[in-house]
Amino acid sequence: MDLDAFDELLTPRGQRALAEAVELVGTDPVAAATKLRKTYDAALTSAALTQAGLRERARAKFGEDAGRMYFTPHGLEQSTRTEVAEHRARRLAGTRADAPPQGLGVAGALPAGASPAGASLHGLRVVDACCGVGGDFLALARAGCTVAAVDTDPLTVAVARANADALGLGGRVTVSVGDAAEVRPEEYDVLFADPARRTSRGRTFDPMAYSPPWPVVLDLVSRASRACVKVAPGIPYEFIPEGAEAEWVSYKGEVKEAALWIGQEGARRRATLLPGGHTLAPTGAEAPVGPAGRYVYEPDGAAIRAHLVGEVSEIVNGRLLDPMIAYITGDDLIDTPWATRYEIESVLPFSGKKLRAALRERQVGNVTIKKRGSAVDIERLRSDLRLNGEKSATIILTRILDKPSVIICDTSPPA
Is this model's pTM higher than 0.70 or not? Predict the structure, then answer.
């Protein structure tokens, strides 16, 4: 889809084509294209079908808003999930980062779409230096900010502008074609930046290969009074600016992204769980190492990324099975959003033959395999086990004091 085709999509005729394309989502693509081509030219047909498919995919991130929004494939892939964007807007309002660390992180938790009393961002001027299709500035504008957004790609800018208008936020957002390096963050209250993390070869995990590259991002940050920079969860620690807070965000148990906060009061590291709104910051806790107990706890990935395994271990009154691996064991039955709990049946030195015999003895035919610190190929192991029982189990492949081990867990669902 090029810019001319997208502009045509916004006309009354284009809107009719898009509405018809939406009705054809899920049907045979050749038949759908053939049907639309009876009324519309090839370029508009392609644009409408592409947009209809992107809207369907976007529902996972944008919910009902996706049905009114516009996307590019790359823009959808990089765009922020609505719940995460709203969380950041609340943090800018000062409702989250100032809260003291809590053991369970539940104090002050807010529903994903809620706006807390007194948390309006009305009048706050934000510059979005690499706006993409607008997922972040939409949340900021809804919270009351006025946003000046820029992107280098004219098509992406047109899509972002259309999204602001489609959601009734055009009066609070201006979108223009521009180079992030030329943004003047000192003229705004807050800088937001979401540098592109894809190259012609695919996704990149090297901040120096971001667009704009990391030195440009750091220059923008150095001139901003407050800033929030979205980065990949695997960002190397050495790239985190001095004095910044690095926050890792997990949504329904999956680490989605990290954000660097500059000029905002907070901890050096933080993990946040959405949609619950739980937050965890360093307390100085250090996890002891000890033998397997009754349970094994698997910390949420955000806590692991934020190096807060010690804090999670303290919450569950646990200890590490191995000092270098983030599996916690304990004897107490403790519910926490920060870890998934499994009851231990057996801990064995790893041997495919012995594991197969143990599972067959338990009549296990379906197994969930988890691993950390193990070089075992999971799919090959699954094939080699050749199980055919009626029960299910979870097994954990790991290393315990440098010895390859397997933990067989109770067949009941984990906490």
Answer: yes
**Is the predicted pLDDT of residue 413 greater than 70, yes or no?**
no
pLDDT in tens, 56-110: 999 999 999 999 999 999 999 999 999 999 999 998 876 433 333 333 333 233 3
DSSP codes of every residue in 4-27: HHHHHHTSHHHHHHHHHHHHTTTS
> Average pLDDT of 388-403?
94
Residue spans of beta strands (DSSP E) within 152-214 = 173-177, 190-193, 198-199, 202-203
The order of strands in the sheet holding 245-251 is: 173-177, 146-151, 125-128, 190-193, 227-231, 254-262, 245-251, 269-274, 278-280
State the pLDDT at residue 415: 57
In the DSSP assignment, the letter for residue 301 is H
Q: Is 402 exposed, middle or buried (0-12, 13-18, 19+ CB in 10 A)?
A: exposed
Structure tokens at 18: 């898009």
Give all strands (DSSP E) within 169-263, no chain letters: 173-177, 190-193, 198-199, 202-203, 227-231, 245-251, 254-262
Report d(CA 34, CA 49) in Å as an integer.
11
Q: Which of 231, 271, 235, 269 is nearest to 251 (CA)?
A: 271
Cα 282 to Cα 102, 107, 320, distances in angstroms = 10, 16, 17
pLDDT (average), residues 36-49: 96
Residue 311, helix vs strand vs coil: helix
